[in-house]
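Box 3.1 — From sequence to structure: MOT6 protein
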Amino acid sequence: MSQGEAAGHGTAKPQDQGWAWMVLLAAVLLQGLTLGFPCCIGVFFTDLQHEFQASNSQTSWFPSIMVAVLHGGGPLCSILVKRFGCRFVVMLGGLLSGLGMVSSSFCRSISQLYLTAGLITGLGSCFSFQAGVTVLGYYFVRWRTLANAVASTGVSLGFTLWPLLSQYLLDEMGWRNTFLIFGGILLNCCVCGAIMRPIQLASGSLPQSAKPEEEPGSRAEEAQLSNGASPHHSILQQHTRRTKCFQVLQKYLAFDIFCQNKGYQIYTIGVTWMMMGFALPHVYLVPYAIHNGVEERKAALLISIIGFINIFIRPLTGLLSGHRVFTGRRIYLFSLAVLLCGLSNFICVISAEFSVLILYCVILSIAMSGVGALTFQVLMDVVEMDRFSSALGLFTILESITLLIGPPLTGLLVDITSDFHYVFYNSSFFLLSAALFMGLSFCALEKKNKLREASKAHLDNPSRYQYSEMSTEPKAENQSPPAVEYITSV
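Predicted structure (token representation):
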């Protein structure tokens, strides 16, 4: 059943109330199961190295592939969401995630883990997570910022519980049986998907709205192609294929938005660059602590501390950023949070004592709360909601590239130098440079738009003074620029 059919069969539900809060609860659990899961991989890092006799770089490919596919499967997820609806995609993701982890428990080489836990589980997590984020945008309008912030607390719960559970199961039954149990746990994504009932949008479903634009052109081309005597038959076929290919790219990867919307362009480039360093502490913090003499249970506790603090800070960040004072300015809060993430990494360079690492985790978790609560809200600010799924697809596939290569390259550097400090040096470099780029670029874009408005107002002044008795026309003119500013996050 397509998304349009699902919407048609679903009953119209008021947004921001009723069943929407059940969907939000399911989204919280979904993000804990999907985004929170990769954080526990560091607990198994040393055991996997010894089991498969792998280097830091080889072992780090496993979580890198998982996280990269989790983010980079956006376009495929977008296609499935538009065709089958969010409920089906979330449940499909749960099945793939469970299958991937069960298969991982039987792996005999690190390369097999790349396929099972990395590719299959990562793709399943991508489907469940991104479809869950998309459905929130339709169920919430007025409370969308708060809903995204509350949903992101699921990541915090995952960060808190996954490492503790992982360390306990690892000590009791080894990593293979632990992965088998994880497969069963991830199947709960199917339950979350069942809760996400189809919702009928007031403006109609997106796939149905696209059909009137496509049908006239396609019918004309079919009429021409039906004339077999035409000498341009093959040329028209090639043109049709190119047109359809371009339509697919524009529909699911939002290249048109990337080229035309400066706010989306800056934000996507900045986050893509940021991801080169953002995941490094999550992968290497536990191995770094163990390497410096911290007990394994205490090392696993560090990740849980980050998640526990996030539980309380993320909703507060969502409430703060949802205030009207920050409307159109949430990108600056996001940049500030990224900047704090980068600065916090220097604490690990100073000392690797457990007390110092706790201080690092506290500061990092506060900064991460801002990043996690605002990432998708800022994206919803810079693009229109009816193109959010497509914009999310391009956004995630670009950042997945840097998520994929960041940890292995850093692991190679650690293998060469035998110095874990380079993990935090690299992370700080990418985070600080990304924060400055996004903050300064949006500031320059805001100034440019203000100058453009000022010049436009100066040109419009004579007509306004001449027809000052027509008070309704200036009001109508004054209402259109803010809509444009909202789309470009200015």
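Summary of the box: The radius of gyration is 24 Å.
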